[in-house]
Amino acid sequence: MNAVAEDTRKVVPFPSAAWFAELGDLMKANRARQEHLGYIDCSVAFTVTDGSADGLARHFRVVFEEFEAVDVAEVDAAAAAAADFGLAASGATWRAMIDSIAAGDGRPALTQTLNYLSHMGTPLTLVAADPLKSDLYYRYNQSLQEFVNASCAFHTVYSSAR
Amino acid sequence: MSVRVQDLSPLPVAANLDDEGLAQYEATYTSRFQVWAEVLQRNVENIHRGSYSLHWLNTDQANWGKRAKPSSRGMTYTDINRIRGYGDAPDKAEWFNFAPRGAVREPYRHEMPVIEEYTVVDKGELWADNVITLYEEAKARQWNATRDIPWEELEALPEDLEKATCQLCTFLTEIEFAAGDFPAKWMYRIPQDFLEVKSFLATQIMDEARHQEVFRKRAIAGGGLLHAAPGFEWALTAILNAPTHTMGTFLLNLLGEGLVLSIFRSGEMIAKTHVDKEIFRRCLQDEARHVSYGVLEFKNYLDTHPNRAAAEEQMHRFCDIGEQVVLSAFVEPALIEPIAVLLGGGLKHIDQGMEGVAHMWRMFIAEYQQRCKAAGFDRSTRCTIPAEFPWGKAA
Fold it and tell me: Which residue of A has its CA nearest to B281?
């Protein structure tokens, strides 16, 4: 009889601050890789535009400093707007990206990278007050891509509302 | 099979020396410059006498005694610039030799050489408030085009897509060394007191060398380099020939690299392999640093200029011609057609791809104007590059 390998990975809900905090922990655990990629100094507001049970936006701010995510929190719209830049998309868009990362064992499909999704302004929207802030998204793009790619290390479950 | 020394071809005859150049050098150091010989004589005599000087132990005029402490990142320029006497770049450089800022140098001024090529002496012509941050970031985020790209995974593409990819890489190979030549040309004209700017420009030169390397490798790994183009060349020479450091930095870092950043972002989006995605993602990070320097260098220039209105008008005049010459690169079929093929998904879908090019064009012009605005320069009513991609307008 063939035994089915049990999935012992941690289960983390999305969207939630816990999901982003888990990515932060993985970043810390993989410090050598972060040091190879270089400093990342910015605050990013990840927004799920229909992330709440009643279809409203939820914002998660991650503050990156040197080689770590030093602060992760769910914030209101005003605090999200104060971040260096934001990345906003529907729950379905985030889910497709996260599922693609999981299916690729940490490497999303060609059409599911952060830059692919955001380059034309949709379905992922880059929000920044000025071009110097939006340039931070480009300056740290590889680090941000690997930040979300690390989600393959755990099992993401999605809220039933979205 | 081993190679025996006696079987090797003889070494080439040494190239003829430039006798005239050598004679001029000899004359310079025997007739024109005398001080070095006096310094040499004095020091040799001291050595012969067995006489110590030990003047270098005297700290009366030195910024001696307060030790710099590293931050969590290590010892950065910011950390050492906190120590009194070391951190202040002058508004106008007065030292035209290699004596380090903050060292005891005044007593030796009369015996020091003067580097006549140090001509960019105003802080307003080169400084940017983010230059130290960008320098540290550039060092920390260096990557290696030989090892950091998963070359072994590169797959052959259908011929039209492979040729489009290789043509795009040919264009990028052609432009990247000019983007290194420009900072190299000006770095040599910047005095040592602006060490932070010189250091950053050195990283930009390294970045551009790596970009040229990675795109050349990608093209040759995919079939080969394809077509160079005169439109690219004229745009590049317009940057190299810019009359001032700020004007050239505007044209290269703010306009040109802003556009190349858009191309890198598009390249990542339209990449047909993970290898190409990684290449473009790595490059766009470097390019964004150069753009950030360009924006704040230009802002600093305008903010510190004694006659801002005149400076702005002069920049508008420069942009009127500079934008047009740079545009000559970005309407080259050897650039826009391969992008359209990649965007459309093949030669058969090039028309569809052109719609994507039109979208990218609008986006680029908007970003260019936003960057000008961030520097305090309103180019919105005077930009000579059309806001809409003029594809088929005459049809």
Answer: A142
Pairs of CB atoms within 8 A across A/B: 74
Judge: B265–A138 Cβ closer than 8 Å, yes or no. Answer: yes
Please answer yes or no on whether A140 and B285 come within 8 Å at the CB atom: yes
Residue A158 to residue A58: CA distance in whole angstroms:
14
pLDDT in tens, B248-284: 999 999 999 999 999 999 999 999 999 999 999 999 9
Domain A11-158: CATH superfamily is SCP2 sterol-binding domain (3.30.1050.10)
Cα–Cα dist B162/B222, whole Å:
7
Question: What are the start and end residues of each CATH 1.10.620.20 domain in chain B?
Answer: 123-375
Name, in order, each residue with C-beta under 8 angstroms of B282's C-beta and a sequence gap of 6 or more. Answer: A142, B143, B148, B149, B214
Measure the CA–CA gap between B44 and B49, rounded to whole angstroms: 9
Output b/e per residue, B216-244; b: 16+ Cβ within 10 A.
bbbbeebeebbeebebbbebbebbeebeb
Phi and psi (nearest 5°) for A63? -100, 120
Return d(Cα B314, Cα A43) in angstroms, integer. 37
Determine how β-strand A58-65 pairs with β-strand A125-128.
Answer: unpaired
Strand partners, A62: A44, A72
- For CA atoms B104, B110, B116, B120, the dihedral sign is positive
The least confident of B15-24, B242-251, B322-331 is B15-24
Please give the Cα distance from A148 to A99 (Å, whole number).
Answer: 11
Instruction: Specify the CATH superfamily of domain B123-375.
Output: Ribonucleotide Reductase, subunit A (1.10.620.20)
CA nearest neighbour of B337 among B327, B324, B328, B346: B346
Q: How far is CA B345 from CA B234, B262, B389, in A?
A: 30, 19, 20
Instruction: Report residue B205 as tokens.
Output: 């030169």
Q: Does the beta-carbon distance from B281 to A66 stay under 8 Å?
A: no
Evaluate whether B371 touches B291 at the Cβ level (below 8 Å).
yes
β-sheet bridge partners, residue A87: A46, A126
* CB pair distance less than 8 Å for A107 and B292: no
- Residue spans of the domains in chain A: they are 11-158
- Evaluated on CA atoms A36, A42, A43, A45, the torsion sign reads negative
**Which tokens belong to B268?**
């990542």
Task: Give the minimum alpha-carbon distance from B165 to chain A in angstroms, rounded to a whole number.
Answer: 15
Q: What is the pTM of this model?
A: 0.93
Alpha carbon distances (Å) from B370 to A28, B295, B355, B375: 36, 10, 23, 9
Chain B interface mutation, best of A40, A84, A110, highest count of B Cβ atoms under 10 Å? A110
Q: Which residue has the tokens 């605050």?
A: A43
* Residues of chain A contacting residue B140, judged by C-beta atoms under 8 Å apart: 38-39
| ipTM of this predicted structure | 0.93
Q: Which is it for strands A58-65 and A68-75: parallel, antiparallel or unpaired? A: antiparallel
pLDDT in tens, B199-239: 999 999 999 999 999 999 999 999 999 999 999 999 999 99
